[in-house]
Write a structure and sequence with these properties.
Layout (H helix, E strand, L loop, with lengths): L17 H22 L3 H5 L2 H10 L6 E5 L5 H6 L37 H15 L6 E6 L6 H11 L6 E7 L10 H10 L6 H5 L2 E7 L3 H13 L3 E7 L7 H4 L27 H15 L3 E5 L9 H6 L4 E3 L4 H13 L3 E7 H4 L3 H9 L6 E5 L16 H5 L6 E3 L4 H13 L5 E4 L13 E3 L2 E7 L4 E5 L4 H13 L4 E5 L2 E3 L4 H8 L2 E9 L4 H11 L6 E6 L9 H7 L4 H16 L11
Parallel strand pairs: 1-2, 2-3, 3-5, 4-5, 6-7, 6-8, 8-9, 9-11, 10-11, 14-15, 14-17, 17-18
Antiparallel strand pairs: 10-16, 12-13, 13-15
Helix pairs in contact: 3-9, 5-6, 11-17, 13-15, 18-22
Length: 596
Amino acid sequence: MALLETVRDPARLRELTAAELRDLAEEIRWFLIERVSASGGHLGPNLGVVELTIALHTVFESPRDRLLWDTGHQSYVHKILTGRQAGFDRLRKTGGLSGYPSREESEHDLVENSHASTALSYADGLARADAHLGRRDRATVAIIGDGAMTGGMAWEALNNIAGGPDRPLVIVLNDNGRSYAPTVGGLAEHLAELRAARGPGVFHQLGLAYLGPVDGHDISAVQDALRHAASLCAPVVVHVITAKGKGYLHTENNDLDLGHAVKPMDPLTGKALKSSGRSFTSVFGEKLLQLVERRADLVAITAAMTEPVGLLPLQRKHPDRVIDVGIAEQHAVTMAAGLSLGGVHPVVAIYSTFVNRALDQLLMDVALHRRPVTFVLDRSGVTGDDGPSHNGMWDLSVLQVVPGLRIAAPRDGTRLAELLEEAVAWDEGPTLLRFPKGSAGDDLPAVATFNGLDVLRRSGSLDVLIVGIGALSGLALMAAENLAAQGIGVTVVDPRWVTPVNPALADLARRHRLAITVEDNSRAGGVGSAISQTLRDNDVHTPLREFGIPRRFLSHGSRAEVLAACGLTAHDITGAVVEMITALDAPEPIWAGVER
């Protein structure tokens, strides 16, 4: 029997010899390669923390001792060692394991941190709580790495942790020199100095104890360092050096990201099993490259996401036109405001879920100053397999409140290219484009235009107006086809620019018996809500129904499965509209208008 098959909880590790632990590490690597190749996921980061995770679980006793992973995508090995091996057959799929720590899955997962640079703040709070309650019988251990130390919140936490020298807290710095790509900035250079054992180091200067550097692939050496750290009963940094993607040829030789996040692939060749087609991301990258070559004032900004947001072609051809700030969205946005003040037009390309982290900067530093900065939000709407924290389902709700911000939602690749060009040409304030993860699909041409609205379909009488938002315009057209087959007249429009609301929508709605909106954003405060307000403001009494994402966190699964769970299918929309039309056609009760 393989050693890994005997590991059902971390206690088993403490029964194994040093040689057996080394053998176990190799078994875990091959387990990861086999399972993650089948499902897709964060392979490279986890291949790099195998020995480190084994050492942590032999020195500390989870769940009594709290292990916090930052970012949480480094927790696959932790899941394997805490009884969840079987769940890897459905990693990141509906009903299977999450790709991040999950409180629902295990008592060994204390926090569900999939946004970077948070663990030190959680850890500071836990250490303070133990001090307040007089507890000295458990440890708090924060494992931070894979670029998470480039985030400003981590340094805010370190500043506070250093102010409490009597509060025990172990900080394991997993230094692999990377996030998606090599870590950038002065911190990266400083860590290189520490790896070479030159100088006292910033952690020592902050007043924190410092141990290291330690070879993160030497289990015994890491165990010794962790035991020493625990014995100090004070805040201490254990600097561990690891190699991202270790032990697998196809990740070690991937110069781009060392297999940071892989799609389902053949484990023998490292080749993806299928092509996803032309994506919204690639369309954006190609169009931005064209625009940059025509305009000397355009500069792109990303927060440690150069390749995932489509900026790699631009960086390779014009490296001076791409700025990677590391995992520092707040700095990225205010720096963009500064660039704009200096005469440059910045294009800030980040995931929708991460723009939440920079709302204050977008509101006060960009919009208040009416700066022409263009934001491009990839992974907007439902992303699916990365789970609740990575769905971009809040951007329209949150950002529609920003004065002067114009928001566009392209429905296909052609519209994305057109709207990006319009956005960077606007110089009266900020603009924003949002689009989902995955294929841009076939183009959906307009059959007509009406006061700035694209009309995608017009058939039959003026029964139902369907407003399709962005990539869900295709779904709107499918529902329209179903309704037309039942003799219901349908008009389908795409506003293109969804904020501010085009007044022409009120004029169109007035002419129809019923209006609906279809969007992959929260129904609470989404485009549908804004259109509803516009109808009321214009004294339009046409009933309006908003179809969108309910106000709850969504479990992981495929995009199609998650949308279906939200009622965003042609079948569900058709059924609801037929019911509403039937209710409108119902004869008025005989007592209508009679006082009772």
